[in-house]
Design brief:
Elements lengths: L12 H59 L2 H10 L16
Length: 99
């Protein structure tokens, strides 16, 4: 009497499907993880570029505010008024009370 040792384990249809989905998950999860980290890295690079642009624009705004203050000074206004032929007459100044 010979024993047949060549017995193969047969998987059921549901077990094959389960093994297939597990294999797909084992392949897909690392790919999704790497992709999401790449997106986060790209977003961080964009954020840093925007921060640099904000610093540059703040510097420009600061210099423009200084230029506005410089041009709005009383000395500069008087110089422009004198160049245009206007003169300062204290008799024409009227004081208004807030009563």
């Amino acid at each position: 009497m010979k024993k047949n040792n060549n017995s193969k384990v047969k998987l059921l249809k549901g077990e094959k499907t389960l093994v297939f989905f597990i294999a797909v998950l084992l392949i897909a999860l690392p790919v999704i993880n790497v992709y999401s980290k790449a997106l986060v890295s790209e977003t961080n690079i964009d954020v840093e570029k925007i921060k640099i642009n904000i610093k540059q624009q703040s510097s420009i705004n600061e210099s423009l505010n200084m230029k506005i203050s410089e041009l709005a000074s009383l000395d500069k206004i008087q110089a422009v008024a004198n160049d245009m032929g206007l003169s300062y007459n204290n008799d024409n100044i009227k004081i208004v009370d807030k009563r």
